Amino acid sequence: MLTDLTPQPPDKILRLMAMFRDDPRTDKIDLGVGVYKNAEGVTPVMRAVKAAERRLAEAQETKAYTNLSGDPAFCRAMRDLLLKDSVGEERVAIAATPGGTGAIRQGLELMRYADLAATAWFSSPTWPNHLTIARYLGVPMREYRYFDNATRDVEFDGMIEDLKGASSGDLVVLHGCCHNPTGANLTADQWETLAELLTKTGAIPFIDIAYQGFGDGLDEDAFGTRLLASQMPEMLIAASCSKNFGVYRERTGVLIAIAPDACSKPRVQDTLAFLNRQNFSFPPDHGARVVQMILDDPDLRADWQAELEDVRNGMLGLREQLASELRMRSNSERFDFITRHRGMFSRIGATPEQVLELRERHGIYMVGDSRINVAGLNSDTVPVLAQAIIDVGI
After folding, report:
1. Does 121 qualify as catalytic in the annotation?
2. Is 248:100 a contact under the CB 8 Å cutoff?
């Protein structure tokens, strides 16, 4: 059996990480890995997380399982963080998952369990794992236009035109904020237009919100999610705590399913628990408990939000600095899109050949589609990147 397994293609980002590690140059710059780093190149443990973990270590008396859907207090805290009062809790089913990736997997499993004929629609481009998970599960897939490579902005007219082809019951996978890999977000008016279209077609939105608080703020980044929740009869939401709480390795996430009415919620909740049971049984609890403690404690929450704001403003500052350096060096405003993008990522529009040249000549590592992780920069490396971008002719 094992000798007959099909070889798997190497993961492009892991391969890039290995190439960066093996590069002997001391001035190399890693913009490829999608993990937040501070100016020293470290992914720190947030102050509130450390404080909550200390309290948990002292107070926790058991490591017994919680339940199949995760700790109810964590699920409630995440529901409030994501949705506030946009939809009544009597319609909201929720289950903890191993990170946002686990939530994506469970959401697609839920779609397959409910309707084998339904199609999942993904933005072009999207996070690669969306496509690989859907393909592995045998989910019918289609793409909709999203990013204009010429303007480096959302190709909204094309997006709407493509999504007119979605059928009732199809899933439309949307990035709640800080689109990965492009950094280009929908405006408030565009979210409104999208809500009208989805209501008309009967397609079901599936929001992947992995970067709440990294864009314009916790509430601002949830605008589209809450708008759709307030208007759509059914909806799925996959949320990750990896980035905004910095608990990457704790695998902390949730899948939320908004049912059409209160009578349907128990059946939906039972199905979420059933799917958890089939895939991994009980979800991880340590990160979930830490997040719940932070969200429920006023002092911890205030400190978490303050540190998160520092992270967000730091990335915005790097964006402004990079755009300014490029404006000066190119004597044009063609890179100002970098200031309009939000979150960790921007797609800068380099060809694969230019990406290769950046790596070989300048020691600057990014994925082949020219997505850069802004958080991989600091004030000293921004000018180096800007000059390299001009040197290779982007």
Report:
1. no
2. no
Q: Catalytic pick from 127, 170, 222, 386?
A: 127
- Supply 271's token pair: 């199905």
Which candidate in 103, 210, 259, 323 is catalytic? 210
What is the distance between the alpha carbons of residues 123 and 172, in angstroms, rounded to a whole number?
9
pLDDT (tens digit, 9 = 90+) per residue, 328-382? 999 999 999 999 999 999 999 999 999 999 999 999 999 999 999 999 999 999 9
Clarify whether 200 is annotated catalytic: no
Where do the domains of the chain lie? 11-44+313-391, 65-296
Residue 208 catalytic? yes
Per-residue pLDDT tens over the stretch 70-96 = 999 999 999 999 999 999 999 999 999
Tell me, yes or no, if 210 is annotated catalytic.
yes
In the set 243, 304, 386, 388, the catalytic residue is: 243
Span 65-296: which CATH code? 3.40.640.10
End-to-end CA distance of the chain: 49
Catalytic: which of 208, 221, 229, 257? 208
